[in-house]
Amino acid sequence: MKYEVVHCPSVLIIIATLFFHLLLLQPSLSVGFKIKKPKRILVTGGAGFVGSHLVDRLIQRGDSVIVVDNFFTGRKENVMHHLGNPKFELIRHDIVEPILLEVDQIYHLACPASPVHYKFNPVKTIKTNVVGTLNMLGLAKRVGARFLLTSTSEVYGDPLQHPQAETYWGNVNPIGVRSCYDEGKRTAETLTMDYHRSAGIEVRIARIFNTHGPRMCIDDGRVVSNFVAQALRKEPLTVYGDGKQTRSFQYVSDLVFIFHIIYKMENLMECWKTTLPYTNIFHFVSY
Ligand SMILES: NC(=O)c1ccc[n+]([C@@H]2O[C@H](COP(=O)([O-])OP(=O)(O)OC[C@H]3O[C@@H](n4cnc5c(N)ncnc54)[C@H](O)[C@@H]3O)[C@@H](O)[C@H]2O)c1
């Protein structure tokens, strides 16, 4: 069984390394660039911030995309520009309920991502992560689709190690007010791996760190949106604590670009892992 983890630094370094390895060192891998027939892709949470950018990219690539979203934090306006495109479908549906769709790939993003939103109804949040992920894995098994779970850096809890290496399993709290999200994502990862081991589904788990960009919710209480909102209101920027804490940030198009590459190419993990220095922008696990 393959077990590889990648810590991605800046996208420019990644692109350069990718091309170097693909085209110069390991030409046999260049098969990843062959033009393939368009796919039918399900994006859960595709009307949300990250999901809508992913949808843009998939549609641009020529694939057919089905978005399933209950619009809890997502908005129709985020994907409005695709309405009328025969390659785009938008379904209002809560993933806590099963759904049957014929698809080749599943990108599973549906889950409120900011503390303001996931603490609003914590039981619903954990249900979305557990029951919703079970439903999507069940679908992947039934139709033989490859599955990508968007997990989070929060699976490390309140980490005692910075940056977090994959050998570090976290410093977690199962009973706190944020546990509906953190523990929900940990369970979603467990389910993903169990489906992989027991049903042979090809899976990817992306542990995403702080992402920002257009369509992010201005009032979600996260650090970048807080800074932007305060700057727009010409207020002083609030820095919590002693100001010495560090975070990893990435722009949304960089995240979506990496999703896209990693989803398609299977054999690059090892070369990235052995070449690149560790930086927590996101962690990627491929099985
Ligand atoms: N944005 C980040 O910095 C970040 C960081 C770590 C992890 N993530 C993960 O990435 C994914 C997307 O995050 P985002 O920032 O785009 O959040 P978001 O809140 O903008 O998007 C989540 C989408 O899921 C939908 N949704 C929520 N519950 C649902 C349900 N039960 N059924 C159907 N749809 C549902 C929402 O309506 C929304 O459209 C999430 O899984 C999140 O945990 C994001």
Plain-language structure description:
This protein has one domain (4-22, 37-217, 248-286): NAD(P)-binding Rossmann-like Domain (Rossmann fold), CATH 3.40.50. The N and C termini lie close together (7 Å). Mean pLDDT is 83; it is low at 1-32 and 267-281. By secondary structure, it is α/β, with parallel strands linked by helices. It has helices at 11-25, 49-61, 115-118, 122-143, 179-199, 223-232, 252-264, 269-275, and strands at 4-7, 40-44, 64-69, 88-92, 105-108, 146-152, 203-208, 211-212, 250-251, 282-286. It is built from 8 helices and 10 strands. The structure holds nicotinamide-adenine-dinucleotide (NAD). Nicotinamide-adenine-dinucleotide binds at residues 44-45, 47-51, 69-74, 94-96, 109-113, 117, 128, 132, 150, 152, 208, 210-211.
Give the strand tally. 10
Residue windows where pLDDT falls under 50 for at least 5 positions? 1-32, 267-281
What is the rounded Rg? 19 Å
Small molecules (ligands, ions, cofactors) in the structure: nicotinamide-adenine-dinucleotide
Strand content: 15-25%
Annotated CATH topology: Rossmann fold
What structural class is derived from the secondary structure elements? Answer: alpha/beta
- Corresponding CATH superfamily: NAD(P)-binding Rossmann-like Domain
How far is the first residue's CA from the last residue's CA?
Answer: 7 Å
The CATH class = Alpha Beta
How would a crystallographer describe the biggest sheet?
8 strands, mixed
Widest β-sheet, arrangement of strands? 1-10-7-6-5-2-3-4
Q: Counting H and I runs of at least 4 residues, what is the number of helices?
A: 8
Order of helices and strands: EHEHEEEHHEHEEHEHHE
What number of structural domains do the residues give? 1
Give average pLDDT, whole number. 83
